[in-house]
Write a structure and sequence with these properties.
Structural class of chain B: mainly alpha
Number of helices of chain A: 2
Largest interface: A-B, 8 and 18 residues
Distance between the termini of chain A: 9 Å
Shape of chain B: globular
Structural class of chain A: alpha+beta
Radius of gyration of chain B: 21 Å
Number of helices of chain B: 14
Helix content of chain A: 10-25%
Number of strands of chain B: 0
Oligomer: heterodimer
Helix content of chain B: 55-70%
Largest sheet of chain A: 4 strands, antiparallel
Order of helices and strands of chain B: HHHHHHHHHHHHHH
Strand order of the largest sheet of chain A: 2-5-1-6
Radius of gyration of chain A: 17 Å
Largest sheet of chain B: none
Shape of chain A: elongated
Strand content of chain B: under 5%
């Protein structure tokens, strides 16, 4: 099992959620986050004076899936969240040791 | 029958004066909202406190001695109710002036209309010194400004008194219809003196000369404030015709309303275009300042320009105010709400535009008048601010400034349930 953490542009959240539903992903966790990457935030003007917005708002999606569909998930998130412009975000894939469903106590792939 | 018509005219003119005074009073709400919107959230309660307190102080000080100094009225308004011969005196004055002549109205309505102008001048100061001045130092200044400094220059201008017995501005061809100079530039001059002694907000100007933005907390509130001021200005300029009760004056009032509105529109549009061209984005705060700049620019003479001229005059104000704000920042004169540019720079502009449409007014008279008002108000204010600074200090400590004036001065936050980044 793998945990896929995707940082995406907030306005792409609905597209990504739909794309994941389409390939049969059962659940995701969404967090509003802020940060910067190579873009290093951006500057705005207020009454002629510049100020830097250091941390841009992003959305973090976490999806735990079976090893078999990891590539498919990565592909659909990439397709849905891609605008071709700087700031589209990143994905991180990490191994998951164990998954437990709290209600029933099921574990492993059964609990996904 | 003739007497009854004069009484009716007296009643109408008094009523008109009072309603206009109430509109100008409401400008205090406009200033409060504008300033509260353009400061940071941590300084909101304090700027609101300043606005309410300065209005109340202005009303009391003008009643105690300001009106006496400016218009030779009695100290504590002695005799303003009128004696037993009130009706006979009013009718006699009306007959002497004639139906279409100078207006005759209740003395108390005159005080009411004048007192709200004092408060307007003082409101201008609070925005410029916002976010770093001690509350009680500011209130002490308000006492002197509204009780003495403003009434002195008001006496030289609207009451026609000689300037320290040396020269008479009216005889030199000076005219300021509703107070571009007497009210607005005067308020800005006092503010400038305060800002120079106070210094900029911490973090506003960087070590390498860069200007940092300190965005205002609540732009809906700043916009509401601007609209309230725009509305109140109809009383400010419209009431300054002083009379409604005959065709010629009613027409003049209508023209003043029209021109006041047109100038505000011209100022807003001009500032919006300039901001878009200079910054690449349409800075709302500049549009708001532009509308007010247009209003200030037309205030010195809203009755003689045509509607087109009024729009253009307002537009010049709107362009000028943006450049004035940028120039003051270059000089490290920190004015969080743009009050010195809106009321000072554009107040001067308003005075200088008068001779274009009013041939009774001379350009040199306007320059001398502007110089007189500025020298007096700036000089006297500088001395008063300096004295307060020496005695109790005018600036809060660096730590208090970081914490915010709300908790330090008032002990309460404006938005206690919001998380502020």
């Amino acid at each position: 099992m793998k945990l896929i953490t995707a940082i995406i542009k907030p306005f792409k959240l609905d597209d990504v959620r739909e794309a994941l539903s389409d390939i049969g992903v059962q659940g995701i966790t969404v967090t509003e986050v802020k940060g910067f990457g190579r873009q290093k935030g951006h500057t705005e003007l207020y009454r002629g004076a510049e100020y830097v917005v250091d941390f841009l708002p992003k959305v973090k999606i976490e999806v735990a899936v079976d090893d078999g569909i990891v590539d498919q998930v990565i592909e659909s998130v990439r397709n849905a969240a891609n605008t071709g412009k700087i700031g589209d975000g990143k994905m991180f894939v990490t191994p998951v040791e164990q998954v437990i469903r709290i209600r029933t106590g099921e574990s492993g792939v059964e609990a996904l | 029958m003739e007497n009854q018509i004069f009484e009716l005219q007296y009643a109408i003119d008094t009523f008109y004066f009072l309603v206009c005074g109430a509109l100008v009073m409401w400008m205090a709400a406009g200033f409060a909202m504008l300033e509260a919107g353009l400061v940071r959230a941590k300084n909101t309660t304090e700027i609101l406190t300043k606005n309410v307190a300065l209005f109340a102080i202005s009303c009391i000080m003008y009643l105690v001695c300001g009106y006496a100094i400016m218009y030779d009225g009695g100290i504590f308004l002695a005799g303003i109710q009128g004696g037993d011969s009130l009706v006979a005196d009013a009718i006699a004055a009306s007959k002497e002036n004639g139906f279409g002549g100078d207006s005759v109205y209740a003395d108390a309505s005159d005080f009411f209309f004048q007192v709200v102008f004092v408060a307007t001048a003082m409101s201008i100061v609070s925005g410029a010194v916002a976010e770093r001045m001690k509350l009680w130092a500011f209130l002490m200044f308000a006492v002197v400004m509204t009780g003495f400094i403003y009434p002195m220059e008001g006496a030289w201008t609207w009451n026609g008194a000689d300037v320290f017995g040396m020269f008479n501005l009216g005889e030199l061809g000076f005219s300021d219809f509703a107070g571009s100079g007497i009210v607005h530039m005067a308020g800005a001059s006092a503010a400038l003196a305060g800002v120079l002694l106070l210094g900029a907000r911490k973090g506003k100007y960087g070590a390498n000369g860069q200007v940092n933005a300190i965005p205002g907390a609540n732009l809906p509130m700043a916009t509401l404030g601007t609209f309230i001021l725009w509305m109140g200005w109809f009383g400010f300029n419209g009431g300054s015709v002083l009379k409604l009760g005959d065709v010629a004056n009613a027409n003049s009032v209508a023209m003043v309303f029209l021109n006041t509105n047109a100038a505000a529109a011209g100022g807003a549009v001009a500032a919006m275009i300039v901001a878009r061209l200079l910054f690449g984005k349409t800075d709302l705060t500049m549009v708001l300042n532009g509308a007010l700049a247009g209003l200030v620019a037309i205030t010195a003479e809203p009755s003689t320009p045509t509607a087109l001229q009024a729009t253009l005059f307002g537009g010049i104000g709107g362009v000028l105010v943006v450049f004035s704000i940028l120039a003051l920042d270059k000089m490290k004169i920190d004015d969080p709400v743009g009050a010195i540019s809106v009321h000072g720079t554009c107040g001067l502009l308003g005075l200088l535009l008068v001779p274009i449409t009013n041939s009774d007014v001379s350009f040199s008279g306007q320059l001398i008048g502007a110089a007189t008002i500025f020298t007096w108000v700036f000089g006297a204010s500088f001395i008063v601010w300096y004295a307060i600074k020496a005695v109790m200090g005018i600036r809060v400590s660096e730590e208090d400034e970081y914490e915010g004036m709300d908790l330090v001065d008032c002990g309460m936050e404006a938005y206690p349930e919001f998380t502020i980044k």
